[in-house]
Amino acid sequence: MDNIRFPIGQFKAIMNPTEEERVFLINQIPEITKKLRTILNDLEPAQINTPYRQDGWTVKQIVHHLADNDMNAYLRFKRALTEDGPMGNSYREDLWAQLSDYENIPIEDSILLIEILHRRFLILLNHLRTEDFRRTLKTQALGEVTLDIALQRFVWHNQHHIAQIQSSVQANNWPVWATEPVEIKTPDPAWLVKGTQEVKRLRETLYPFGVRDIEHIGSTSIPNLPAKPIIDMMAKIKSYNDLEEIIESLKANNWSYVPYELDGHEWRRFFVKVKNDRRECHLHLMLEDEEHWGQQIKFRNKLREQPNLAEQYAELKRKLAEENREDREAYTEAKTDFIKSILESE
User: Fold this and answer.
1) In terms of Cα–Cα distance, which of 320, 305, 166, 128 is closest to 224?
2) What angle (nearest 5°) sits at the alpha carbon of residue 56, between those of residues 330 and 36?
3) What distance in Å separates the CA atoms of residue 137 and residue 152, rounded to the nearest whole number?
């Protein structure tokens, strides 16, 4: 676990760095955001929202944390230059990572913040004298440290988290279907036929595990509604005790299990059926008392019964697909208010 959590090793201070070692460290600071941009440039939204390890932060949380931490470190550094051995304030980084800005602000905002902050820090560092780096501050993590050590910690901390992001990218060798764009197709009567066929196949596969109720849901289950050409299915099960066996059984029919820590929806266990590197079907496996089951049925039936609602939904889907073509999660989230209004109506 330490190799995953600390991919470049834990921090080790150089107690009396030479001038050359100090300059080498300072020269690494402008490279931090360049490296971040290079790594993040090709990531899809789903990858940015993926934890770098089980129970760890997502890539997005790491980037926002880097901005917050560097702001705190910069202020502590300046206090040590202007006060005698000040106590550097700590902060609950675990709780900061749960705040709404970490979830809702684009990572580009934090990268810009880091760039500007580092530019200011470099100007400060390049005008300090050797004796300035011997000034001290107190920290909860390291005790009393010189600004030489604080500078080392600053650079190490950035490299530490960048390495976590790199390890996440390497570990999650994402298949093509995981990052395919949002594409809304014209209605196809074959979708209803495929749904019926898939219900039959899934019933045969899942019957030994006590699954009896299986439904075709989502836009492809509604006649004449434009949709992503993916057949959404849901099935009820009494417990997830046999999940490992279910995963193996479905795998034989080209179903891929999306691990819970990546999917992030505790109300389901999620599977994707793939053909020619593209999503063909989704399966939402739910426990018998899950409220999402009734919600899915109600929404489907409302749109089947009221073509005017289906047309409103179609217009919304087209608009959101244009706005969020490369971000499936944003596309799905943006439909929430409309779906909620249908579920709350009589």
Assistant:
1) 305
2) 65
3) 14
For residue 280, the 8-state DSSP code is E
Question: What does the DSSP assignment read for 106-128?
Answer: -HHHHHHHHHHHHHHHHHHHTT-
Residue-wise pLDDT for 200-237, tens only, equals 999 999 999 999 999 999 999 999 999 999 999 999 99
| The pairing of beta strand 278-287 with beta strand 269-275 | antiparallel
**Cβ–Cβ < 8 Å for 345, 63:** no
Contact between 126 and 26 (Cβ < 8 Å):
yes
The CB density around residue 213, as the number of other CB atoms within 10 Å, is 12
Q: Where are the beta strands (DSSP E) in the chain?
A: 136-139, 143-146, 214-217, 231-237, 255-258, 269-275, 278-287
Distance CA 56, CA 5 (A): 9
Provide DSSP, 213-248: -EEEESGGGSTT--B-S-EEEEEEES-STTHHHHHH
Residue 315 is which amino acid? E
Contacts of 201 (CB under 8 A, 6+ apart): 253
| List of E strands, 71-193 | 136-139, 143-146
The order of strands in the sheet holding 255-258 is 214-217, 231-237, 278-287, 269-275, 255-258
DSSP state of 17: -
pLDDT tens column, 49-108? 877 776 788 899 999 999 999 999 999 999 999 999 999 888 899 999 999 999 899 999
Give the C-alpha separation, 250 to 330, whole Å: 28
> Distance between CA atoms of 84 and 90, rounded to whole angstroms?
18
